[in-house]
Amino acid sequence: MQSGVYHKRLMSELRQIQSSTLSNVHLKTYEGLDTWVITIHGAEKTLYAGEEFTLRLKFPSNYPFEAPEAIFVDKVPVHPHVYSNGHICLSILYQQWSPALTAQTLCLSILSMLSSCVTKERPTGDLNYVTVARSPKDAIWNFDGKSLGDKSARINAWIN
To answer: Helix or strand or coil: residue 138?
Structure first.
């Protein structure tokens, strides 16, 4: 069951993102309060300029104390931190999440991650990861750039 904090916070964030003047991040649709679909437009003068991506945010019942699940759907950007199944390797989605962050700041962080990319390529171990990964929340992410493991598959690590 969702708490009053969950409902109040998501209603506030929904209003914030709906009224936002950001040119690269737009709320496309939402299904209740727990699932939002966001359109992210690649920033000008970046590798992703002119491209459009769809991001699905699923909010857990203990949001904002736990990060939403963020997955690219439909067209998945080719990026060193984005797996071909749409899972995103970004610390604020996991260990570095803070209740001070919002859906909008999360989307801006993902846009920034895309904008700072210098080469379009998949992460090392992409095929192995997408073969076993069901949810990014089930993965054990290591942000030192050396390994990534998935608990459900009992795979300890892939080394870069």
So the answer is: helix
Q: Looking at 25, 57, 89, 110, which residue is catalytic?
A: 89
Domain count for the chain, please give it.
1
How high is the mean pLDDT in each 10-residue block of the chain (160 residues)? 82 94 93 94 97 97 95 96 95 94 96 96 92 88 57 32
Q: Is 89 known to be catalytic?
A: yes
Domain residues for the domain of 60 are: 4-123
- CATH code at position 61: 3.10.110.10
Tokens of 121: 């390529």
Q: How many residues does the chain have?
A: 160
Could you tell me the pTM of the whole model?
Answer: 0.87
Domain membership flag for residue 156: no
Among the residues of the chain, which ranges form H helices? 4-18, 103-115, 126-132
